[in-house]
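ok trying this again, last paste got cut off
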Amino acid sequence: MKLNRKELRKIQYDFNSCSNRLLQANYEDYADVLGKFVNYIDSTPIISDYIHDCGSCDWNLESEIKEVQSSYGRLIFSLGETDSEEIRNVYAVLRYLVENNSSVYRGVAMGYSSSSKWQDKIKGFNERFVMVLIRHVESYLTKVGIDMGIDEKNIYNVTVQNGQAIIANDNSSVTATTNIGATANDIEQLIAAVRTKMDTLTSDEDKEAASESLEVIEAEVISEKPKKSMIKTAIASLQAIKGTVEFGSAVAALIQFVEPMLS
């Protein structure tokens, strides 16, 4: 597929919006929102190509899903031993649930929370199952953006081989990608996203720690001689905060973008 960095960032924004809507969906609306999530993946080539490159799920999906559904909370899905297995298995289950209009909160989600509340079961299913796929896709899109560099207008051919993005300038032969590194503008946007999600933190102490860590990262990454040790400490502080799924997702996206600078 052909796209430039600006188009990629729009895809990242749309995917994050679609993912967050699913993560926050009411249990009664979950099936419809899940359908929109799967349809977005299927209609976005850079994401669907990445997932399909991970191979086909070799489960007997009907049998596996019925077994979990009929266990009344005693069983949950295994994910797989490799990243590729996790990606293709989670996607395959979600797609099957959508295609067969299967109830989630009264079915496969029951084993993901010991709570008797339907909403808690959906929350557990999202955090322990759906988020696995979301995190993999977020990481992949972030790495593609890093490899594209800083030119907003340059158009690239992006293909996927063995779970890796192969990027080439339009009309050129495919070559190995080069890690250009993070730009100040990208960092600012990712930090702003984390700050927005800080409102979901319940502890003032956590909010203060997150704010201080973000200030350190923001100052160091734009410095001519960034102190890697300070960035690593700030990252560790953010990772230690037990926040909401939305906060954790925003932090993960920031960390994935900053980490190449620390190698």
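PB: full thing came through this time. The two ends are 30 Å apart (CA to CA).
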